[in-house]
Amino acid sequence: MQPVVFAGADLAYVVRYDGISHQEWNRTDGPVAELRRTVRVHYLRQQGYRCAYCRMEKKENHGLTWDVEHIIPKSVYPRFLYEPLNLAMVCKECNIAKLDQDVLHRRVGPGAVFPSRSEDYKIVHPHFDRYSDHFEMIVVGGRISHRPRNPLKAKETFLMCNLVRFSYAFGEWEDFNYEVVKRFSEFVESCPPDATRQQITSFMQTLRFTVNGDF
Ligand SMILES: [Zn+2]
């Protein structure tokens, strides 16, 4: 996805930041409130109104659904407060789960540049990683579940953002298989005995169990 580009009043505000006073981010009025709006509008559009971590979709603009996320926590590294590649939109649930947890493999020294490689991060990074490389998103009965594809970034993201909360319906794979078999049985029962090849094909296409989580 494209990082936000600050301009005009937003840019003027960013360049005078001292790199320390990250509490200014939470001010409810003034230039930072406008800047947060710029960030929100930009990334919600880039992300197609999906959370950077769980890819839940919600077509709402207001702050009740969405938080601006500092991927590297602003309390730990205040100097990356306005770094466009450190910003994304996340849902409240992911934000509350992730909090100020450390996402970097190695601490970054005071003079070092912003870590901009996928391998610098423990978690799936919204800017540097492709989501589908790390998660298979399975849909059964209208519910989404995340299946981590690897024991590294995917597992770490799963744990850090508490993605298990989506899986309560079928936490075990036996349950998922059961759901698949059940759906398929229903399909076979509802399929007329004289169905044509085309009819069967169109029936089969309704049996979708995965979605693509990429932006
Ligand atoms: Zn989320």
Write up this protein:
The protein is α+β, with helices and mostly antiparallel strands and 215 residues long. Helices cover 31% and strands 11% of the residues. The protein has helices spanning 8-15, 31-46, 92-98, 153-160, 173-190, 197-205, and strands spanning 66-70, 87-91, 135-140, 143-148, 210-211. The protein is elongated and about 75 Å long. The chain binds zinc ion. Residues 51, 53-54, 56, 90-91, 93-94 line the site of zinc ion.
Please state the structural category: alpha+beta
Largest sheet descriptor: 3 strands, antiparallel
Order of neighbouring strands in the sheet with most strands: 4-3-5
The ordered string of helix (H) and strand (E) elements is HHEEHEEHHHE
Distance between the termini: 7 Å
In terms of DSSP E residues, the strand content is 5-15%
Quick description:
By secondary structure, the chain is of the alpha+beta class. It has six helices and five strands.
Based on the model shown, name its key terms:
5 strands; binds zinc ion; elongated; two-stranded antiparallel ribbon; 215 residues; alpha+beta; 6 helices; three-stranded antiparallel sheet
Strand and helix layout:
Elements: H1 8-15, H2 31-46, E1 66-70, E2 87-91, H3 92-98, E3 135-140, E4 143-148, H4 153-160, H5 173-190, H6 197-205, E5 210-211
Antiparallel strand pairs: 1-2, 3-4, 3-5
Residues 51, 53-54, 56, 90-91, 93-94 line the site of zinc ion (ZN).
